[in-house]
């Protein structure tokens, strides 16, 4: 019997690669050989005859690719939490299963969210620049030097209150926050899933906001953690910033376009808010050195590293390989997307 | 009756200044008028006849100042947690009381410690620089781009385990750390004060290390939070770094000289450790732009901003004023140092 063909659009590492290598007798594994993102033309050419394809966020899964592969294709396994790059409808109509890795990066992203909140409040970017530029010797100690707002006693507002937002709230509790507000697609209604039992058990109030207005007005820290949809695009714009407190900060760990970047730059310029911490931004990664957001001393921007821990990326790779195998044999995946 | 004279070596703010201003009928308040640190010559000249002096960390309190003030001096109130700038023996022999502000900055410093741990692990400094330098467009997504170690499952080692270290541990628990080790001046012995009941109640082991060796070998995160004494100076040096794990990070929120800076630079150069986060450093603030530590991409250095929150600095100012008043009237201080 011919071996099943599996395409993998990256070199993997450690356990994930070992799992793949161990199946070399049963599977014909064809891996993109370079460290750069996989060429589309290479993928279309090699997909022919594949039963499974393991893709990255940067590989588009559409009719063209599915046609190139052929009708024997059983499974797409995406090394990602998001599936915006996948045409789910096309998979459904062809009865192809979709695996992804939505849960294993919760801790890594929640950790980074805490880092960004603290950097926005405590002027992390400004402080590092001051020292790197050799300005410290000329700025002797002063009682108000580099002071920022303190998180104790804060109201923290979550735009989107899924697993990552709730994991962030769990970490924030011992910092002494006073209250949490969250806004979901059903304002004023209790959140569907209480992933860590916080809503039930936490000693502070955790309340569903009546709308974006209430959340903007009352929050000292605003955390953007919602999916990008037509109704969340530019949800945080001039109107929202105008309602925020002058000492409040905003953090985005979701998708860039939820925040209107031009409006954010203006809000920072006009000291409408205190600071910002961004893991994502509109038009990433095409952010040139002269981008206006990079001129804002009170804004910290990191290059979409939310899930970038060694442990999480290893686990994402391993789960992706397991999802491909499950797709080939008809077994249960670690995480399968509903189509 | 003549009004008591009080010298204040800074302009204060908000409630602290209001408290002072409200006593203008009873007290002759003489305040250093500039925003720069107080001139020594101004202080010596104006101290004459003072009953109380409110000083900053940058004002030396020694025999010369006490002589200049005269025998009516009853109280020194220092706007600081440390009292290295005060000759305690001289105060004791003259029966002058010393107030300070050791407790109100615990939260602010513990918050900053968490920020520095996460920045050291998650490559915060490197990430910011990459984006600011316009390198993001040329560094497309890669599964191992900017990855660092994850805190979940870590053993966290504390050099010094006082109030701030314990407040840091309290914040770290929901990040999923596995174990805490601490080293105090009595290795292997339980810590004297369990400020937040963690040692008793936490779900993870919190153990006294047998020595610096064990702590260096077993920790994934090392937090320097001890006082600077002859025995802690350069406690973290080449020998310590050699024993650390390659993926471990070190954070210093105590006093610069506990870490041997040259050894740290070598350890980072030779990838003996993964990264570092420093709020303090030897010879601060005299850190020029060409200092070797600033060439280390995996080291984040901020300008001693541990307690730099608006709330904490206001509280330090207010407590300092209250300590002066208490010293004048013989009442109890918010915090009085034992001499």
TrEMBL record, chains A, B:
Boundaries of every D-isomer specific 2-hydroxyacid dehydrogenase NAD-binding domain copy: 114-306
Record keywords: Oxidoreductase
Ion transport listed as a keyword: no
D-isomer specific 2-hydroxyacid dehydrogenase catalytic domain mapped to chain residues: 6-335
Cellular component terms per the entry's GO annotation: cytosol
Family annotation (Gene3D superfamilies): NAD(P)-binding Rossmann-like Domain (3.40.50.720)
Stretches assigned to coiled coil: none
Record-level Gene Ontology MF annotations: glyoxylate reductase (NADPH) activity; hydroxypyruvate reductase [NAD(P)H] activity; NAD binding
UniProt record similarity statement: Belongs to the D-isomer specific 2-hydroxyacid dehydrogenase family.
Protein name: Glyoxylate reductase
Species of origin: Cucurbitaria berberidis CBS 394.84
Lineage, uppermost ranks: Eukaryota, Fungi, Dikarya, Ascomycota, Pezizomycotina
């Amino acid at each position: 019997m011919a071996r099943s063909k599996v395409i993998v659009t990256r070199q993997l590492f450690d356990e994930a690669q070992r799992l793949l290598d161990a199946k070399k007798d049963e599977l014909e594994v064809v891996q993109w050989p370079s460290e750069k993102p996989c060429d589309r033309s290479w993928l279309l050419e090699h997909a022919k005859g594949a039963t499974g394809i393991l893709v990255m966020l940067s590989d588009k899964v559409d009719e063209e690719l599915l046609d190139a592969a052929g009708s024997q294709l059983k499974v797409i396994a995406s090394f990602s939490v998001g599936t915006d790059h996948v045409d789910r409808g096309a998979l459904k109509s062809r009865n192809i299963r979709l695996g992804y890795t939505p849960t294993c990066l919760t801790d890594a992203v929640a950790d980074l969210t805490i880092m960004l909140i603290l950097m926005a409040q405590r002027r992390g970017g400004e402080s590092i620049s001051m020292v790197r530029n050799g300005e410290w010797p000329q700025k002797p100690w002063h009682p108000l030097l580099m002071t920022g707002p303190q998180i104790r006693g804060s109201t923290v507002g979550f735009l989107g209150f899924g697993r990552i937002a709730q994991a962030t709230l769990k970490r924030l509790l011992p910092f002494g926050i006073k209250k949490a507000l969250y806004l979901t697609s059903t304002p004023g209604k209790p959140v569907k899933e209480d992933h860590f039992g916080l809503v039930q058990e936490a000693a502070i109030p955790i309340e569903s906001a009546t709308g974006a207005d209430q959340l903007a007005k009352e929050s000292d820290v605003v955390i953007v953690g919602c999916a990008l949809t037509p109704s969340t695009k530019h949800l945080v714009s001039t109107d929202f910033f105008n309602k925020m407190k002058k000492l409040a900060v905003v953090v985005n760990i979701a998708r860039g376009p939820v925040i209107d970047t031009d409006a954010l730059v203006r809000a920072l310029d006009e000291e409408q808010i205190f600071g910002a911490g961004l893991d994502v931004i509109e038009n990433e990664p095409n952010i040139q050195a002269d981008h206006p957001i990079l001129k804002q001393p009170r804004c910290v921007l990191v290059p979409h590293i939310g899930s970038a821990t060694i442990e999480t990326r290893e686990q994402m790779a391993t789960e992706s390989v397991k999802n491909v195998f499950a797709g080939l044999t008809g077994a249960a995946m670690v995480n399968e997307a509903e189509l």
